[in-house]
Amino acid sequence: MIRTVEQYLESLNDGREIWCLGEKVSDVRTHPILGNIIKTAALDYVFPNHPEYRDLFVTQDEQGEDVNFLLTAPKSSEDLLRRRECFVAAMRSGGGVLLHCMGADALAAFTVTANSMDRELGTGYSERVENYRKLLMKQDLGITGAVTDVKGDRSLHPSRQKQHQDYYLRVVDRQDDGIIVRGAKVHISASPCANELLCLPCRTHGEEDKDYALAFAVPVNTPGVKLLAVEPVSRTYGEEGLFDYPKTSTRPPTESLIVFDDVFVPWERVFMCGEWQFSRTLAYAFASYHRLFGTCKMVGKLEAITGAAALVADYNGVDKADHVRKKLAWMAMITHMVKELGKAACLDPEKGFGHDVAMPNRMSINSAKYTFASNFHQMCQYAQDIAGGLSTTVPTYRDWSNQEIRPYIEKYLSAKDGVPTEDRLRLMRLIKDMTGNYWQIDTIHGEGSMAAQQMFLYGSADWDLLKAAARRSADIDGWQDDPVYGSLLSTDQVKMPPVDESYKSIPESKR
């Protein structure tokens, strides 16, 4: 089934408990702040129904019924590349796939981990995951992944927290028909506009933490689920919001602190419960899939900020300055690197857990994420430097709309001949918005911190190969058994004529 936008919007009127700025929200669709993100999320249902994008976003299930492609399990490089193309197209369009990024990544991670647990422990989780997938596809539900725990004292394991035991989501009771869970998740994107929450651990666990090794899915309107939406970055709406905050006015608040206040979950919706040995597998699989989305999200963002820097250089009349072109060249390089590394992660997938589901290459995808996260501050600095101080002191929409003072703004804030002052102001507002605190922090910590990428990069690197390369270069034995360097050709296989002995008479210093 492929739902219409209208069917999706109607599904959100379900009695869910959401709070925003200290007030309980009666209807997320008509709320002045949440309504913006609902509109953006609804793009998820525009693409599959649009004739130009239908072939990309829609596929068929085993019965030949139309389903959302992002709800299927990727099984090949082609599937990962198509998944990437969906993400890139939607994010370039203004931030779609909010409902099918974290959720689809969590669903894929459930599939990989359930197969591993079934194979090694004899559990039956794979059947549950696939039955749940069929439910999602049949009803075309909007899903998000609830991953990050609030953590409390980060120096302590979940079960050893001092103030209380609920800093990490956990099982508090097991019953014949299901489980009772308690805890909270934080920074959960798209939660106000989702139909379903797919919950999984954000870290590895020891046996003493087995009650926290937990994966399940519940509808957002489940009794006991409470969403506390984050403070909006912008509180201006309509044309004023689009002028002053062209990016952030249409996005936040996507995130929520989600409280699970003794929530009941039926067994058929439980996909891990106490199998602490596999929480690492689940967390790592999710991270690999979700960083693919992160790189896709950044394609549009990096293209926009690099393009804004180039456009403002033209508007300011400095586009031919050597130092400006060097900055723009560097920004274009970073943008291209992130784009190509994300593509490379799809072209060389991993199937390391023995399942037919394909995972993005961990080395490539973490390299892509680390590249943009570690360089985004510099991107912002260059954009601000090229734009100049006006990117901070640029007038607002209300200033521009006031006919008494507008002539002064029109006259004195113009620059290059032929460029309308309004266009220059709108571009300055974009740069101010895109290089602000919200986007810088989101870019660094979204899809995992840089420390997390470094951990993945170290763990994913082929150190045996790298050390073999060093041993061969230094003529130290040990490289011969390496499958790559041990099979390479060398100059030893070139038969040269005998050395001319007369050269021995030449002093060594002159040879």
Short description:
The protein has 511 residues and is an alpha+beta fold. It has helices at 5-11, 34-41, 43-46, 54-57, 77-92, 102-121, 125-139, 238-244, 279-316, 322-347, 362-387, 390-393, 397-401, 406-412, 421-434, 437-445, 450-460, 463-474; strands spanning 17-20, 23-24, 58-60, 66-68, 143-146, 170-174, 178-185, 196-199, 214-219, 225-229, 256-266, 270-273. The mean pLDDT is 89.
For the record, the CATH class of the domain at 5-280 is Mainly Beta
Structural class: alpha+beta
The name of the CATH architecture of the domain at 5-280 is: Beta Barrel
- Describe the largest sheet: 6 strands, mixed
Could you report the average pLDDT, rounded to the nearest whole number? Answer: 89
- What is the H level of CATH, i.e. the homologous superfamily of the domain at 5-280? Butyryl-CoA Dehydrogenase, subunit A, domain 2
The global form is globular
The low-pLDDT segments are: none
Count of DSSP H/I helices: 18
Strand content: 5-15%
CATH fold-level assignment of the domain at 5-280: Butyryl-CoA Dehydrogenase, subunit A, domain 2
Spatial order of strands in the largest sheet? 2-1-10-11-7-6
Roughly how many Å is the radius of gyration?
A: 27 Å
The number of distinct β-strands equals 12
Share in helix: 40-55%
Q: Order of helices and strands, N to C?
A: HEEHHHEEHHHEEEEEEHEEHHHHHHHHHH
Distance between the termini: 80 Å
